Amino acid sequence: MALIRALAVHVPQDYSTIEYLDKIVNVLDHIKKCLGICNVTPWTFRLIFPISTNYKSIEKYLDELFSVINGNTLVSMSAEGSALDINYLINIMHKHKKFYTAIRCSDDECVDKVATTVYAELGKNIDINTYTRIAMIFGSWIETPYFPATCNVSNILGLSAALRYVDLVNNALINGLSHKLYNFIQDVQDKLECVSKCSGIPFLGLDLSLSPWKEESVADLIEKLIDSRIGSPGTINAIYSLNKLIEGIIKKLKIRNIGFNEVMLPVAEDDILNKRVEEGFVRFRDLVNYSVVCVAGLDMIAIPKILDVRRVAIDMLTVHKIKKRSVAMRIIPVDQEPGTSIELENFGVTYVAHP
């Protein structure tokens, strides 16, 4: 079912103090009134803040923020790996289940620090669900409505959105119904421009990344394109072709865009990909390879603790250097054998990947 997956409000630094909480609440109330006027119903509502100097400095602010905003609102604040304070990150993650964060690394030293804290020390103190809310970014920061790998780089007040539209892409490619795909995206952009005009808040753009949700499966679409299971020869070409399709839509419709705008393969969010991981047909090493052509080739994937997280992160840093574009990683280390099922809050059953 095609819909607006996420509507994000980009909050500038000037608003990121306790003294300005009332102003944030007023802005959000005004936006939500405009959503009704413009007939916009997002699946999720999100706030994106600028880069934090460290987690200690934001803990009190988040306590106050979550006390005054709607309980279903998701919040992202991210930090440089060099500024990581593991104790405060643990506290925040424990207290606020709607809090998401990304940690950026651009060198081996930073990777070492994050691997030995977030994926080692932190793993002793939290349940595995916390890892669904933490990402690593390699390269420059990306501003996108997709969580957790985002931050408000522009440092301005603005609006952005992401979509769920796999079904429409499927119908366009398999059944020739391209007009329905174009009409939906154009209609969404028009409605978001309406919200922008109504609220007086700039519309920063759409992230047209093709992302799954359960039976709305990107892996299923890839399998139709190659007439075989994902992981078979032709998979990388199919992902590349879908990326070119996204690029073509942006150019054809003159879409104001922001973020990644690429195929996403989050394992726990894609029923078919999840099944292929369970079968062992798609292995962890395959997903690392796909990250060369897929921004989130390592996304929402449970891995056995026998895998060296540091080496995985170094590989992703290398992928960034090869692509010369930012890439993200969201992995879930678990103390289970490959092929074992695990239950994740909000996502259901997923499977530990085979190396």
Q: How does this structure look, described?
A:
By secondary structure, the protein is of the alpha/beta class. The protein contains 11 helices and 13 strands. It has helices spanning 21-37, 56-68, 86-95, 108-121, 166-175, 178-199, 218-226, 235-253, 271-279, 284-290, 309-323, and strands at 3-10, 44-48, 74-76, 79-80, 99-105, 134-138, 158-164, 203-207, 264-266, 296-304, 327-334, 341-344, 348-351. Helix 2 links the parallel strand 2 and strand 3 (74-76). The longest helix has 22 residues, at 178-199. The two termini are 33 Å apart. 43% of the residues are buried.
* Structural class determined from secondary elements: alpha/beta
Strand runs, count = 13
Rg, rounded, reads 20 Å
N- to C-terminal distance? 33 Å
State the share of residues found in helices, binned by percent. Answer: 40-55%
Average pLDDT, rounded to a whole number, is 93
Strand proportion, as a percent range, falls in: 15-25%
How many alpha or pi helices?
Answer: 11
Which key features would you list for this structure?
single chain; 355 residues; alpha/beta; eleven-stranded mixed β-sheet; two-stranded antiparallel ribbon; 11 helices; 20% strand
